[in-house]
Backbone:
């Protein structure tokens, strides 16, 4: 197995009773790649992602994430990845600094390291003024940037982002993507789901799930050529509508 | 006028949710409130559906005052809140019957209005609402908001978190409802949906940035915009951000939208500069502004 592949998935399947939520999906993700994981609501994205982050055991198939097997080493996966979702991000009743300390502690960082990381993070995000304010009082865009940084606090090999930019204003949404580019440029693999099709264009490669299967996987440029489409939105509509 | 809003302000503790908002919506119009989370969209909807008092200003909906005639408004509008608000433990059919009964009507009486939408969820009519998929919940909520044949329909972020296919279907449904004479006020954080409205108000931090037709709003963007592409997107963004003459640098799909602060901008200068930053496969070409460009320029 190649060292440059940080996610390797083969015929991964998840069934709930008679229903096949994820149907034998196969793909690899390279180190430092921005991988877009798209699909309609109910196509199986969340179920697939849950298997990859070690919180749902697959029915069959094989997958390695950050070098660890999803069946036997799920706990090791959790230590080596970061995860951010739109729904749960940070504790609103803790301050910015407390949130960073809390998540640093969860990932087993030393007190010294947490202090260094907190200061660096707060400075980088320009949060000096609000470092001791409750996160609940911050605007959504700041929360999301902070939440992304916290997901990277333990320098994970891969960060999973589940619709990270939903509802954010267009300027903040772009600043967020600049953070993603930066992380990828530093070697962190980014696995991201989104409903914004312009964001699909920012990915190195994109997969599109339809009814539990990966129906397309390529660079945005090749997908547009393959489906004779002007943009990713058209690719998506052509594929998902059948 | 179907909706008339005059100088409305509303504050919560230290947040000015709405600041001196005014606009009018004509009968049968599809009017969009376009803005991100926290812009004040939901507060505005709650004021217009008589669920919240304002601090200042006045508003009428379907000819009724939101304070004096609130009961008349409640009988003549349909409201689909952003958060799914039907009874999770009632079935699809029970929910619909419940809302019909509350308004003193029946499913049969206004079936023609909801038929197109209801047939899509009818196979699941005995399923509890809580067990429906996101797309089906959305369709049921729309049916319930329509069952008493409202004059004005309020839809608060009906497509947030919804995939592009379902979003397109939803907008097709709205167009058909509009043709039946219903005035629709719809909010969305998706800028691409703005083009589907007759007129839009761009809103941010409780203030309206601009109101007009989507076409006119885009026309107001006067600066020339350039599509820029290179072999490395991250380097390109960094280099453009570091360029002393930039006015705005925003990633837009496969390109970066670039505007220059100079009036006599020559793209060749930019090309030469980017060349010194080890970027290759450079592509710079003029493009046209989108609603999103305009929004960002106004919000800057």
Residues:
């Amino acid at each position: 197995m190649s060292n440059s592949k940080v996610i390797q998935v083969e015929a991964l399947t998840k069934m709930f009773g008679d229903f096949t939520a994820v149907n034998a999906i196969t793909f690899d993700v390279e180190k430092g790649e921005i991988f877009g994981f798209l699909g309609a609501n109910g196509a199986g994205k969340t179920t697939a992602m849950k298997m990859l982050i070690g919180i749902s055991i697959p029915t069959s198939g094989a997958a390695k994430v950050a070098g660890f097997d999803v069946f036997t080493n799920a706990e090791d996966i959790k230590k080596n990845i970061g995860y951010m979702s739109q729904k749960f991000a940070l504790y609103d009743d803790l301050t910015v600094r407390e949130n960073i300390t809390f998540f640093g502690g969860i990932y087993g960082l030393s007190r010294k390291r947490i202090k260094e990381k907190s200061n660096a993070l707060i400075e980088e995000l320009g949060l000096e003024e609000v470092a001791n304010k409750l996160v609940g009082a911050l605007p959504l865009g700041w929360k999301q940037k902070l939440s992304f940084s916290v997901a990277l606090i333990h320098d994970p090999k891969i960060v999973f982002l589940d619709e990270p930019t939903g509802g954010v204003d267009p300027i903040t949404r772009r600043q967020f993507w600049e953070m993603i580019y930066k992380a990828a440029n530093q070697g962190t693999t980014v696995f991201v789901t989104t409903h914004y099709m312009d964001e699909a264009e920012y990915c190195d490669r994109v997969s599109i799930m339809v009814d539990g299967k990966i129906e397309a996987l390529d660079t945005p440029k090749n997908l547009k050529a393959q489906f004779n489409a002007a943009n990713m939105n058209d690719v998506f509509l052509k594929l998902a509508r059948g | 006028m179907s909706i008339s809003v005059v100088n409305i302000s509303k504050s919560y503790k230290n947040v000015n949710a709405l600041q001196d908002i005014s606009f009018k919506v004509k009968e049968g119009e599809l009017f969009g409130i376009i803005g991100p989370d926290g812009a004040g969209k939901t507060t505005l909807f709650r004021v217009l559906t008589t669920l919240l008092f304002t601090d200042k200003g006045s508003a009428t909906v379907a000819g009724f005052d939101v304070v004096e005639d609130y009961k008349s408004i409640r009988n003549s509008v349909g409201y689909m809140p952003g958060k799914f608000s039907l009874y999770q433990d009632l079935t699809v059919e029970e929910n619909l019957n419940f809302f019909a009964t509350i308004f003193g009507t029946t499913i049969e009486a206004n079936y023609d209005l909801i038929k197109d939408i209801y047939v899509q969820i009818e196979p699941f009519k005995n399923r509890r609402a809580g067990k429906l998929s996101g797309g089906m919940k959305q369709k049921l909520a729309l049916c319930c908001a329509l069952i008493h044949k409202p004059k004005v329909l309020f839809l608060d972020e009906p497509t947030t978190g919804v995939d592009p296919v379902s979003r397109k279907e939803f907008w097709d449904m709205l167009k058909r409802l509009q043709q039946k004479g219903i005035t629709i006020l719809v909010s969305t954080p998706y800028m691409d949906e703005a083009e589907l409205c007759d007129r839009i108000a761009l809103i941010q931090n409780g203030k309206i940035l601009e109101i007009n037709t989507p076409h006119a709003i885009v026309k107001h963007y006067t600066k020339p915009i350039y599509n820029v592409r290179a072999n490395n997107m991250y380097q390109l963004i960094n280099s453009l951000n570091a360029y002393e003459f930039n006015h705005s640098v925003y990633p837009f799909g496969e390109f970066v939208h670039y505007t220059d602060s100079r009036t006599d901008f020559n793209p060749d200068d930019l090309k030469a500069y980017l060349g010194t930053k080890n970027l290759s496969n450079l592509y710079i070409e003029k493009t046209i502004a989108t609603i999103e460009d305009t929004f960002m320029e106004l919000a800057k």
Chain A touches chain B through 39 residues (CB under 8 Å). Chain A has a mean pLDDT of 93. The CA atoms of residues 18 and 59 of chain A lie 12 Å apart. The radius of gyration of chain A is 18 Å.
